[in-house]
Specification:
Elements: E1 54-60, E2 72-81, E3 86-93, E4 104-108, E5 122-130, H1 133-138, E6 140-143, E7 146-152, E8 166-168, E9 191-194
Antiparallel strand pairs: 1-2, 2-5, 3-7, 4-5, 6-9, 7-8
Length: 196
């Protein structure tokens, strides 16, 4: 919008102030037709790609009190939302080690509740496993974990059409390829606790 004025800057009496809308080329915001210069009228749309992503890093303690039957290994899982949208329904599963307790949420670094990760937020989960004689005989315990979440809007509703991000602690991807490196640069491969 502007004020019609003379060359000396004084307003022209009786002249109507011109007004135009970037979305339509006119003051009534009609989303069809053409602008005064002949270009099509309509809103300016800037696509913003939804790129959900999640990582998981797992570590383990030495067996307590020792590497004997009944000794307990404590696993710590750190998941991080490395995408550009919030994640809800976040889960950590580790199903290939029978007897491992269900990973339990402990805390997050941006105070979100269990199951929610804001962009850039990390959350910590723990689980435990009691050694069996077969583990002692094998000399090690090997297992993997998977983190997954639902891409969501800031109000918590899922984003239609977005793919749920999934990451595996053993490989840095959902297909569990045991070679290469994880997104954080750490080597891919299952968590191995050697019993010596």
């Amino acid at each position: 919008e502007g004020i019609p004025s003379k060359s000396d800057g004084t307003p022209i009496a009786g002249a109507t102030n011109p007004k135009n809308n970037s979305s339509s080329g006119n003051a009534t915001d009609t989303p069809t037709g053409t602008n005064p210069d002949g270009s099509p009228s309509g809103p300016t749309t800037t696509p913003l790609g939804v790129a959900p992503a999640i990582t998981i890093v797992k570590s383990s303690s030495a067996p307590v009190p020792s590497a004997t039957v009944g000794g307990v290994i404590t696993y710590t899982f750190v998941t991080k939302n490395t995408g550009n949208v919030m994640l809800t329904g976040v889960t950590v599963t580790d199903t290939d080690l029978p007897g491992l307790s269900t990973p339990t949420w402990k805390a997050s670094d941006k105070s979100s509740p269990a199951g929610t990760l804001l962009v850039g937020e990390s959350a910590t989960y723990t689980a435990s496993y009691a050694l069996k004689q077969t583990d002692i005989d094998a000399g090690k315990v090997v297992n993997n974990a998977v983190a997954e979440g639902i891409p969501s809007k800031s109000d918590g509703t899922p984003i239609a059409g977005a793919t749920n991000p999934k990451n595996n602690s053993s490989s840095g991807n959902a297909t569990d390829t045991p070679t290469g490196t994880n997104p954080d640069g750490s080597p891919k491969g299952p968590t191995v606790v050697y019993l010596t």
